[in-house]
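Exercise 7b. Backbone tokens:
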């Protein structure tokens, strides 16, 4: 399905990183993976053992990472900004601006930087895909999570704008915007085992349950494949009916 496409994914230990890497490799992709933890050789080795075929990278700077993949493969077909960062809770009058800056850096600035670096190579190649794995949260808003929602909204808007800018180069840019997906980053085990808390969470979801990693992986696989070549500039909600 992916016909030996070269794919770069960020924050590979988080959010949809493991599932995404696994399903893409299974479909014939060459997957390079970034994560902050990969500065440690042991972390890279552990990830490579868990996801056979993946190529974890020690570099952290987006420019250096993109240059390394281009040097090895000659191209990057798909850039997946799988950005993850804690959804920090704070009333607006109690927000720490340092926390806001850190949230924006992780969920907007870094993805922007990666898009900037891959775009010049994709423009020369006359093809490519940039996917922001963001959130459905900006669709409805979540009280007391203004930092997180604002940052995710920025990433969604960036995808829409870049789609219009890069479409003439045959580059598709979209945002996969999940919410209520099984992930220890946002739904840790202790929360899911709290019956009252879990009931409160799922009561907001029309389908009455969390989405699975496998379901999210299937959606991601479609969006990075040639089957989505006529889809661009979309914020594609994946939230069990919550984002309407």
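Sequence design result:
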């Amino acid at each position: 399905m992916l016909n030996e496409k070269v794919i770069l994914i960020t924050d590979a230990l988080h959010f949809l990183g493991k599932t995404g890497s696994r399903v893409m490799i299974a479909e014939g992709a060459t997957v390079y993976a970034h994560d902050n933890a990969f500065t440690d050789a042991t972390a890279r080795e552990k990830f490579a053992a868990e996801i056979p075929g993946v190529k974890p990278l020690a570099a952290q700077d987006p420019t250096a990472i993109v240059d390394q993949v281009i040097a090895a493969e000659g191209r990057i077909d798909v850039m997946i900004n799988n950005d993850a960062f804690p959804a920090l809770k704070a009333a607006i009058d109690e927000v720490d601006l340092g926390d806001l800056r850190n949230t924006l850096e992780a969920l907007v600035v870094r993805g922007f930087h990666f898009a900037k670096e891959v775009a010049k190579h994709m423009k020369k190649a006359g093809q490519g895909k940039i996917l922001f794995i963001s959130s459905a949260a900006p669709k409805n808003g979540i009280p007391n999570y203004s930092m997180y929602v604002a940052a995710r909204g920025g990433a969604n808007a960036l995808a829409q704008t870049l789609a219009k800018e890069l479409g003439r180069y045959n580059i598709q840019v979209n945002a996969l915007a999940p919410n209520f997906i099984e992930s220890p980053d946002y739904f840790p085990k202790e929360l899911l085992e709290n019956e009252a808390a879990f009931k409160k969470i799922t009561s907001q979801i029309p389908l009455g349950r969390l989405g699975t990693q496998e379901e999210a992986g299937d959606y991601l696989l479609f969006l990075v494949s040639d089957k989505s070549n006529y889809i661009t500039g979309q914020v594609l909600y994946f939230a069990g009916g919550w984002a309407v």
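Instructor comment: The mean pLDDT is 96. The domain at 6-238 is CATH 3.40.50.720 (Rossmann fold).
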